[in-house]
Amino acid sequence: MGPLRGQSFKAEGSDDVGCVEVAFHEGKAGVRDSRDRGTGPVPGFTARQWRCFIEGARNGEFGLPG
């Protein structure tokens, strides 16, 4: 997706160890570690993919192992 574009939203649970931002631009959702300051990868997801991910997260489908 390239650099994170559009207005970004930072997760409330972000701290100095992990910081996640999401931005929506041209029909896609981009996700990044804001500590990378634009140098890290920014995976992009279609609106459908993003909705499926959010639904799965709300349903507890992506819990950490252990």
Number of strands: 4
Mean pLDDT: 83
The proportion of residues in beta strands is: 25-35%
Terminal residue distance: 32 Å
Strand order of the largest sheet: 1-2-3-4
The stretches of 5 or more residues where confidence is low (pLDDT under 50) are none
Cα Rg: 12 Å
Number of helices in the DSSP assignment: 1
Structure, described:
- There is one protein chain.
- A hairpin with a 2-residue loop joins β2 (20-25) and β3 (28-33).
- This protein has a four-stranded antiparallel beta sheet with strand order 1-2-3-4.
- The protein has one domain (8-58).
- It has 66 residues and is α+β, with helices and mostly antiparallel strands.
- The termini are far apart.
- The mean pLDDT is 83.
- The chain contains one helix and four strands; from the N terminus they run ββββα.
Provide a short characterization of the protein structure:
The chain has 66 residues and is an alpha+beta fold. The protein is built from one helix and four strands, in the order ββββα.
Which labels suit this protein?
66 residues, alpha+beta, four-stranded antiparallel beta sheet, 1 helix, globular
Helices, strands, pairings?
Layout: E1 8-10, E2 20-25, E3 28-33, E4 44-46, H1 47-58
Antiparallel strand pairs: 1-2, 2-3, 3-4
